[in-house]
Structures are given as C-alpha cells and as structure tokens.
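Final report, closing paragraph on structural work. Over the funding period we assembled a curated collection of sequence-structure pairs, and we close with a single example.
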Amino acid sequence: MSFLIDAIRWIFSGDLHGTAPVAESIGVHLWYTVISVAIAMLIAVPVGWLVGHSGRGRDIAVAVSGAARAVPSFGLFILLVLLMGVIHTSAAAIVTFVILGIPSILAGAYAGFEAIDRAVIDAGHAMGMTGWQVLWRIEVPLGLPLLVAGIRSAVLQVVATVTIASYVDIGGLGQYIIAGIPLQQLDMVLGGAILVAALALVLDGVFALLQRASVPRGVRAPGRPPTRIRPEPEPEREPELSAA
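Its predicted structure, as stored:
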C-alpha cells in the first residue's frame, strides 16, 4: 500500500528526474494515439465496408487481420526503427501503431455489416433503394456499433504500445517507466503505470459511451417495466357432501 501512496505522491510532486512534465507527456501519448488510429481508420474502414457490403474477400480480410494481430508490437517497432533510421523514430512509431490498429478496425467494419439481418437489406432493395442508398441508410447505421467497438479496441492497443515505444525516446507516459527502472525509482515506475492505466480507462469509458450512442434509436430495446409477482390463486375446493 505504501508503494501506491508513494506513486500517487510522485505524480503530484513534480520530481520528474529530467523527463517531460506529466501534462506534456499525456498530450504526446494522445497525439500518437489519435494520429495512428485516424490513419488506420482511413485504411481499414473502406476496406471493411467493401468486404461486408459485397461479401467478397472476407477470407483475405480475416487472414490479414489474424496475421497482423500475431505480429509482436515491440519487435515490429524496433525493426522499423532500424530500417527507417534513428532520426525517423516518430514515423516508424506511427507506422507501427497504424499496422497494429488496422486489424481491430477492419474486423469491426465488416463484422458490423455481416451482423445485419439480410431481410432488412432485401426490404431496402424492395423499396427501390440503390446500392449506395442501402449502404448509407441501412448498412452503415446498423453496422456502426460494431465499428465503434473495433475502434475502441484499436485505441486501447495503441495506447499500450505507445507506452513501450518510449524505449527509443519518442515521449509519452512510458518514458517514466523506462527512466525509472535504471534509477530504481519504484514510485516513478508505478506512477507512470498508473497514468497509462488511467488514460486507458478514460478512453475506454469515452468509447463505451460512443458505442452505446451509435446504436440507432429504432434498434434500441425499449425499457421494460418491472414485472410484479402475483400470488397464484388457490385452487377451488369441491363442496363436501354431508352424510345423509
């Protein structure tokens, strides 16, 4: 318990041992996360919607997503740093984060379309809707919750990877953990971990609300009034025949 108290005290003490201020580190962490997830969305969402709408290339999309998930994030980052050069560590970091964010967003994009009841789409065609109208008026709104869920998963994965990528001095909250280990400053290491966890929880809560708000109003289950348990009526007794 004392370690936790020391870590919280370190967060508010300002004893950073030559590292950047906490507010600046949070901004850098968020910047890498937002930029990387936005680029991943520009790549994965159109491809996922195309796969879900046309039904073609699903096996390829699943194979690519599975292969990308199996790639070790830190190893990929170090490899890109070596290939692109030390002076391009920021670019290597963003490429790494984009590659890691694509699988979850891609899966959420096409899974959202596949989860739609085909009868709803057939009804749209029966009403005279074109393919684009079915896409934007039916498939995109109904598939949005699963897409947001995929983005939510990608954001959390990128937040975690930005932490370990601070090993090559790109900034972010991970620098406190990296710098605190050789200094044997356990309060600094634990404080950095607490900040990363707090940021991840805040972002997860925001996307949980967005995911809930993305459900179309007509699809939301209406609230049901609480059921009242009524006592069962007692069975009627047959009248007893009096002895003659």
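DSSP finds nine helices and no strands in the chain. The mean pLDDT is 84. We thank the funder for supporting this effort.
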